[in-house]
Specification:
192 residues, three-stranded antiparallel beta sheet, alpha+beta, 21% strand
């Protein structure tokens, strides 16, 4: 009796960025925006955009140390990753913030959204970050196609001042400033 062994290689279809649309799963998350000509982030001859972590990966955290300014964050498109890294570096440099968070404010509990974000790994990708306000605008514009947004506000990576950081409502699109020691939702993004 002869038996035949068939080996398949390359059976997993890798989708190209050229084939994806907003709302589809791609590279560990969901396509949240595709940059168009005239938009910052557009690259001629290449499809680029924003991927958001799926709703199952939303987490809640404080933004961080209330009462001391991190400084240097930006609302601009493309600033989210730098903002997130800056916020984490600031907290890592505080004297034992994670074990003694009340050194900042009595309501601080030691959670820092940037720390959770930069430790996040999904679908083999570890380059996730908290969106800037401009990046959040794209998420808001496509919220119905992305899905999974709550009626509560979400943290951005932008700081308002020593006491507050920026949040966005995905119901109204309103951008507000809230105390950093409040616990809010975070939905991380990455670029492709």
């Amino acid at each position: 009796m002869l038996s035949t062994i068939v080996i398949f290689s390359g059976c997993v279809k890798e989708e190209s960025p050229e084939d994806v649309t907003i709302g589809e799963p791609f590279q560990g998350g969901v396509v949240a925006h595709i940059f168009q000509p005239g938009q910052e982030g557009f690259v001629e001859g290449k499809r680029t955009g924003i991927i958001i972590a799926p709703v199952e990966e939303v987490f809640e955290s404080q933004w961080g140390c209330q009462g001391t300014a991190v400084g240097g964050t930006s609302i601009a498109l493309g600033a989210g990753r730098t903002n997130t890294e800056r916020v984490l570096a600031f907290h890592d440099a505080l004297p034992d913030f994670y074990n003694n968070p009340t050194q900042c404010h009595p309501a601080n509990n030691g959670t820092v959204a940037a720390r959770v974000t930069l430790n996040f790994n999904l679908g083999g990708f570890n380059d996730w970050f908290m969106p800037s306000l401009e990046e959040m605008n794209y998420l808001y514009d496509n919220r119905d196609r992305i899905g999974g947004f709550s009626t509560v506000e979400y943290w951005s990576s932008c700081e308002s001042n020593a006491t507050n950081a920026c949040v966005m409502s995905f119901v109204t699109g309103e951008q507000l400033s809230k105390p950093k020691s409040e616990t809010r939702r975070v939905r991380v993004i990455r670029f492709f």
